[in-house]
């Protein structure tokens, strides 16, 4: 897929800042390993890698020199939706924060917050790209329907990952168990209040956050014209 040099030039500042932010997380994780001699939070590197996959997919579609065909857009979009929950999922890694010997509490707080921030920023940057692609093809209202559905499904994915310990690969590696657990919660919603509590609360939180990021960018552009 050929890349538009002009689109890449416009986005380089964003990519540079995201790279700096990710670099800070890498440094903090590496510093903790050196400080403690333990690999306790090394799993966050894997989580950051998974969070970057949907961003890379949406960036590839956005940077394409020619508009992607409908089939390719659907194919990449399906893969994007499958991996997208991995980005906001990083917020729930705050569950791992607790005082530990050998490392200051504030250091672990900064480390996990850095990773959580990167997860959110990768999620929102990726969603902005996909939102624009859908809106151009289907219109304003369908663009927001897509955003709302993506964030609610992502929040459901966060629940599946944090509480049932599924991940994106289980769609292929463990599809029957995954399908059964999802179907059970859809058929018997009252038996699973935590499922829908997590889905709705995180969904609303992510939607408000996305709207805030979008408005901040638009307001700044209008004020600097």
Automatic annotation (TrEMBL):
Keyword match Membrane: yes
Residues that span the membrane, as ranges: 12-35, 41-63, 70-89, 109-128, 140-160, 196-217
This protein's UniProt keywords: Membrane, Transmembrane, Transmembrane helix
Pfam families cross-referenced by the UniProt entry: DUF1361
InterPro entries hit by this protein: DUF1361
Protein name, UniProt field: Uncharacterized membrane protein
Species in which this protein is naturally found: Hymenobacter arizonensis (Siccationidurans arizonensis)
């Amino acid at each position: 897929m050929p890349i538009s040099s002009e689109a890449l030039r416009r986005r380089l500042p964003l990519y540079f800042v995201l790279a700096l932010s990710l670099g800070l997380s890498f440094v903090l994780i590496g510093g903790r390993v050196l400080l403690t001699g333990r690999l306790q939070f090394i799993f966050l590197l894997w989580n950051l890698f998974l969070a970057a996959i949907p961003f890379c997919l949406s960036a590839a579609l956005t940077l394409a020199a020619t508009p992607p065909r409908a089939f390719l857009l659907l194919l990449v979009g399906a893969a994007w939706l499958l991996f997208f929950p991995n980005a906001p999922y990083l917020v729930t890694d705050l569950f791992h924060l607790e005082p530990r010997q050998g490392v200051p509490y504030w250091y672990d707080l900064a480390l996990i917050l850095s990773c959580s921030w990167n997860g959110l920023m990768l999620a929102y940057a990726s969603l902005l790209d996909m939102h624009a692609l859908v809106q151009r093809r289907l219109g304003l209202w369908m663009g927001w329907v897509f955003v709302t559905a993506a964030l609610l499904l992502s929040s459901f994915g966060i629940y599946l990952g944090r509480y049932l310990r599924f991940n994106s690969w289980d769609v292929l590696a463990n599809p029957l168990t995954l399908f059964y657990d999802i179907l059970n919660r859809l058929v018997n919603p009252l038996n699973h209040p935590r499922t829908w509590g997590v889905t709705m609360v995180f969904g609303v939180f992510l939607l408000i956050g996305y709207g805030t990021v979008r408005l901040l960018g638009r307001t700044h552009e209008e004020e600097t014209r």
